[in-house]
Amino acid sequence: MAKWVISIISSTGSWGIALLMFLENVFPPIPSEVIMPLAGYMVTNGELSFISIVIAGTVGSVLGALPLYYAGRRMGEHRLNEWADRHGCWLTISRNDIESASRWFDRHGGVAVFFCRLLPGIRSLISIPAGIKQMNMASFLAFTAVGSAIWTAVLAFLGYWLGSSFQKVDEYLNPISWVIFGGLAILYIVRVIKQRRQGAAKQNA
């Protein structure tokens, strides 16, 4: 997988990073913990600049947060929970996920958007309650951008800091990352099946 990600970034540059980070937020096929360190490593080869990859990663993350924000804003909590019960399994979003993110938002307000952008697992979901509560768009974008910039910069610096050693790491990372990806794919399928059964049970109850 590592070589595949590197090939995409090599052929598309910063646009590829932005696209991968956008997809990671909407539907996480490849986590940012893989994308940005690999992009940081490519800086050491002179293919990209550090600033450009951080900007690209941040832009992709911010754009990826908007669909979930607007989903929450337009549908509201009740309709969104019903949608999650019926179809959320395809995006691995459940009612419990939405309610958990909502509690974070209720407890910490708009600042939760900033802090949650630094937390794997809830980074994308926090956009939903922000939309449900109709958080001011300018504030949402500002908190999302700052949190995303810090997250992408830290991950990119990790890859940059490893530098030439990353080539040796890649020899082990590439096969291991495919195993991890395969495991995540299996977990995704299991979760889809489980949520579909739970949704069917609720509809029949």
TrEMBL record:
Topology relative to the membrane: Multi-pass membrane protein
PANTHER family: ALKALINE PHOSPHATASE LIKE PROTEIN (PTHR42709), UNDECAPRENYL PHOSPHATE TRANSPORTER A (PTHR42709:SF6)
Compartments, record wording: Cell membrane
Top-rank lineage group of the source organism: Bacteria
Name the UniProt record assigns to this protein: DedA family protein
Ranges of residues in domain VTT: 30-160
Record carries keyword Cell membrane: yes
Organism in which the protein naturally occurs: Nibrella saemangeumensis
A family per Pfam: VTT_dom
Keywords: Cell membrane, Membrane, Transmembrane, Transmembrane helix
Residues that span the membrane, as ranges: 12-30, 50-71, 140-163, 175-193
UniProt main location, coarse: membrane
InterPro entries from the UniProt entry: DedA_domain (IPR051311), VTT_dom (IPR032816)
